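Supplementary Methods. Inverse-folding protocol.

Structures were first reduced to a discrete structure-token string of length 51. This string, shown here, constituted the complete conditioning input.
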């Protein structure tokens, strides 16, 4: 994950808190499967499409 201009490797079962309007990018650079959960607090859907 790219966060605050730095590559961050998250391990299984860990998470990261991203402040509102903080630039970030998530991508899988391994050959394995990646699943992630996005949680908004408070609830927000500004400009986002629910899938």
């Amino acid at each position: 994950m790219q966060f605050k201009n730095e590559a961050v490797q998250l391990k299984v079962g860990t998470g990261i808190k991203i402040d509102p309007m903080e630039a970030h990018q998530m991508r899988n650079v391994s050959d394995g499967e990646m699943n992630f959960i996005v949680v908004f607090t408070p609830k927000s859907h500004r400009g986002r499409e629910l899938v």
